[in-house]
Amino acid sequence: MRSDSSRCTVILPVLNEERIIEKTVAELFSAFSSVNLDILFVDDGSTDSTWRIISKLSENNPFISGLRFSRNFGKESAMLAGIGSASGDCVIVMDADLQHPPKIALEMYNLWRGGDCAIVEAIKTRRQEEGAVYKFGAKTFYKLLLMLSGIDLNNASDFKLLDRRAIDIFMAMPERQTFFRAMSGWTGLKTGRVYFQVSPRAAGVSKFSMLKLWKMAVNSITAYTSLPMQLVTIAGLGFFLFAVIMSVQTLVMKITGKAAGGFTTVIILLLLIGSILMISLGIIGIYISKIYNEVKFRPRYVLSDTVGSMINSRK
What we know:
There is one protein chain. By secondary structure, the protein is α/β, with parallel strands linked by helices. The protein has 2 domains: 7-134 and 155-205 and 299-307, Spore Coat Polysaccharide Biosynthesis Protein SpsA, Chain A; 227-296. 50% of the residues lie in helices and 16% in strands. It contains 10 helices and 8 strands. It has an 8-stranded mixed beta sheet with strand order 7-5-6-4-1-2-3-8, with helices on both faces. Strand 1, helix 1 (21-31) and strand 2 form a beta-alpha-beta unit. Helix 5 (132-149) runs parallel beside helix 8 (210-224). The model has no long low-confidence stretch (mean pLDDT 81).
């Protein structure tokens, strides 16, 4: 049982969310009326009035703070910046568009405060209306990740609570390219679960394009398993055995005077082997590019401004 005086920091990554910020703040403070709550916005390079609104809210409320990136670095970097700058005994990462309901965030906090979980994750029981292509892509990604790495993220989300121990472990991970949804589960710390239905967006549109989702899927799979590299070796061995069989068959037909007619088989084999080689080089290239990005060791984000008094108070 944690203390009733435990402070919770809600981290809200935002990108061009000027239409919803004030409503989100009001609903959070209403839901957490009996909890020591502070809110930390992370502006991921917004081009509208998002930062001006955050600054105004912070001036009027000492429990609202904000970080502003110099440009768009992505949601993963925004979540990382918020987690590293939070002052609470626990943090809750959630979307600012109210698709993650504040009442569920309070349920997560109560589960953490009343038990011994280091992490509480929110599991989707029903997704919002999505296109058939998106649903198929999401299911395929989760199945691939489970098959290749053993990490089950089906219906998982970035809607999570981390306590101070989990935060310290998370921030100690040195990689530049992060995948928060899986990294929190990788720790192996005791995890509680709550279930929720994704609400419709209160305003605005999704900032994730299909290209961004594809990049996230590739980065996520390659970050947690090297099996695709091993598949290249397996494919090579398979084609070597196939080549041996074809060579034996060709020699037998030559010796018996039954030479193969035409070049169809040769052309098919060349095209097939060429395709396998190009795919294999592509897989190797992805891993090399990840190594290249990691060894540069550039900062994950650059801050251009901060507001509020609840930032880095533990540092």
